[in-house]
Each structure stands twice: as C-alpha cells, then as structure tokens.
Amino acid sequence: MFFAMSLIVSCSQVTSTTSNGFGPRDFPITLGSQSSVDVVIAMDKLWKEGDFDGMRE
To answer: How many structural domains does the chain have?
Structure first.
C-alpha cells in the first residue's frame, strides 16, 4: 500500500510559474527577494572599495 502511494505521489506533475533560468519554459526568472539582491550589491561595493572589515559585518 505504501509503495503504491509513493508511486502515485512521485509521478504527479508539478507545475511552476517561475524559473531559475535553466528550464525549457518561458517563465520569468526569479533568483530571490530584493533584500538578497541588496546584500549582494552592498558586498560588491565593499569588495570594490577593498573594505574587507566591512564585509565581515
């Protein structure tokens, strides 16, 4: 019984409306929230300035 249920659940089709860019569909690419993008931008700015102590904070 458990085996049959696991086959049914594992074979169900999962649909998504977003993508990370590695799919054959034309969904919008999403890689995270704006706050995570802001963190990367701030780290990039500190890296360009050479402020490695600021990167540790």
So the answer is: 1
pLDDT in tens, 7-32: 566 665 556 665 555 666 676 666 67
Q: How many CA atoms lie within 13 A of 52 on its CB side?
A: 0
Residue 47 lies in a domain: yes
Q: What is the DSSP letter of 6?
A: H
Cβ burial of 10 (10 Å; 0-12, 13-18, 19+) is exposed
Does the predicted model carry a pTM greater than 0.70?
no
**Residue 53, domain extent:** 30-57
Question: Virtual CA dihedral for 43, 48, 51, 57, nearest 10 degrees?
Answer: 0
